[in-house]
Specification:
Elements lengths: L1 H9 L5 E3 L7 H8 L2 E3 L14 E3 L8 H9 L3 E3 H10 L3 E6 L4 H16 L8 E8 L4 E4 L11 E6 L3 E3 L2 E4 L8 E4 L13 H12 L7 E5 L3 H7 L5 E6 L6 E9 L2 E8 L2 E8 L4 H16 L4 H9 L9 E6 L2 E6 L4 H14 L5 E5 L12 H8 L4 E5 L15 H10 L4 E4 L2 H11 L5 E5 L7 H13 L2
Parallel strand pairs: 1-2, 3-4, 5-8, 5-11, 6-8, 11-12, 12-13, 13-14, 18-22, 19-20, 19-22, 20-21
Antiparallel strand pairs: 6-7, 9-10, 14-15, 15-16, 17-18
Helix pairs in contact: 1-2, 5-8, 5-9, 6-7, 10-11, 11-12, 13-14
């Protein structure tokens, strides 16, 4: 929604917005654009009367502003609908979908196209990403449509979450991709999907939108993905570690901050890649982006240059501070699988160092007990674990609610030092006394986490007397 606000402002519209609480990096982005955010929601935020209200999918009936919009019959629409109508029509829609890796993969794809556009202007991308791509310093970019009939690329992250209170289908069904990537398919968003079967149905419908002339690059290490692409009408190219993968990854190596690997295409040598990011999952994301870009006509040397100069995404394994030899990492991990991959990547990036996992159960999935056992298994990859209380636990029915105490007990039973804390301040106080030089602290939340990202470095500095 923050990115869309910037895009609409760039089209010449006057844009304001409302939120219960805005936090970085998107609050910083909007402030830099001069877009006003009203906090909290209130009827007077809609004064003067807007021509159109774009309703985000976090807004439900009962919201003060939504009720005012309905009562006053102010025109409204969803984010996905206005995105399609204002920006995708007349452009080539390239969509990255999947339970994990969408933001990073879309950012990689955008940078590949940007590098390629230096050689051929037709590749100059517009994009919308669910995070700030550090190569661009923004989460969106909209270029003027070409005067000729060339359909310029628009790259976007395809979200499977619902569209709006009046449209409960996934947002990606509005994007009508010409070509797409499908990274992973797992059970997620337990607040809107009943089970894995419902999630797979949504992704099957997404695949069904790709035209016969189109192309789908899909992960080759998941039965769920295989099920979702089995009836595609377009060409499907699988990527992964399997010998039968069309885009096969091999010779994967980690060397400090660098990951290197070899890719074969259809059984023939294609390229060697270098990426300044840790983690097998990031190599897979990069391979997917490379595969889609290659199919769009981008040269391998441009892909190699782009990946070797890729600068990640805000809040994805982002180093926030280094204090007294302690490295503090910020990661958006919102699902047990994402947590596992984050901790595995940090093990590869910082071998031999003591690893802390600091978690706020905040996403609609993590706040529920459906993943209680899997969450403990993922967190067990760390040497020390600190878990905060469930964010706004009162909004989750007791019978569905995650019980962090159960996760902590399971970790302790497996001889992993773990503790439950009431809030971020309690975690900061504990870590200020326990962290030592050489530690790596991974803070994982999809929200502001009580300001822990600034409070913890300050506390460590105070403890060290600096």
């Amino acid at each position: 929604m923050a990115s869309l606000a910037g895009m609409l402002q760039g089209q010449g519209h006057r844009v304001t917005g409302s939120d219960a609480a805005a936090y970085p990096p998107m609050s910083d982005l909007l402030a830099g654009l001069g877009i006003t955010i009203h906090e909290p929601y209130a009827e007077h935020n809609l004064d003067p009367r807007p021509d159109l209200v774009v309703v985000g999918n976090a807004i439900s009936r009962g919201n003060l502003e939504l009720e005012y919009v309905l009562d006053e019959r102010i025109p409204f629409c969803s984010m996905a609908a206005i995105l399609h109508d204002e920006f995708l029509v007349g452009r080539e829609s390239l969509v990255v979908a999947g339970t994990h890796g969408k933001t990073t993969t879309t950012s990689m794809l955008a940078w590949i196209f940007e590098v390629a556009s230096r050689r051929e202007a037709r590749f100059a991308p517009s994009f919308l990403i669910g995070g700030v791509a550090e190569n661009f310093g923004t989460s969106f970019l909209v270029r003027d449509k070409s005067a000729d009939e060339l359909r310029q690329p628009f790259l976007l992250e395809g979200d499977e979450y619902d569209t709006a209170f009046f449209d409960k289908g996934p947002k990606f069904l509005h994007y009508f991709p010409d070509a797409a990537i499908l990274t992973h398919v797992e059970f997620d968003h337990a607040d809107i999907y009943a089970d894995l079967s419902a999630v797979k149905t949504a992704f099957k419908r997404f695949v069904n939108l790709i035209p016969q002339r189109g192309r789908l690059v899909a992960y080759d290490g998941s039965k769920n993905v295989t099920d979702c692409v089995s009836k595609a009408f377009c060409r499907v190219e699988r990527y992964g570690l399997a010998e039968t993968s069309y885009w096969r990854v091999s010779e994967l190596r980690h060397d400090g901050p660098w990951t290197t690997w070899t890719v074969t295409r259809g059984g023939e040598q294609y390229a060697d890649f270098r990426l300044p990011m840790a983690g097998e999952h990031n190599a897979m994301n990069a391979t997917a982006a490379a595969a889609l870009a290659a199919g769009q006509g981008i040269l391998v040397k441009d892909i190699q240059e782009a990946l070797s100069t890729f600068r990640s995404v805000k809040r994805r394994l982002e180093v926030r501070a280094e204090v007294g030899g302690v490295t503090i990492i910020d990661d958006f991990a919102h699902h047990p699988t994402a947590i596992r991959e984050t901790l595995k990547a940090l093990r590869e990036r910082y071998p031999g160092r003591r690893l802390w996992a600091v978690l706020e159960p905040r996403s609609n999935t993590l706040r529920r007990n459906v993943f209680e056992a899997a969450l403990g298994e993922s967190l067990a990859l760390a040497d020390r674990i600190a878990i905060a209380a469930v964010f706004q636990s009162e909004n989750i029915p007791v019978q569905e609610r995650l019980m962090p105490a159960n996760v902590v007990a399971a970790l302790q039973a497996s001889r992993r030092p773990a503790a439950l804390y009431e809030n971020a301040d309690a975690i900061v106080a504990a870590l200020a006394g326990e962290a030592r030089s050489g530690d790596v602290i991974a803070i994982m939340s999809n929200g502001g986490f009580g300001g822990i990202y600034t409070k913890l470095p300050r506390a460590l500095e105070a403890a060290a007397g600096t």
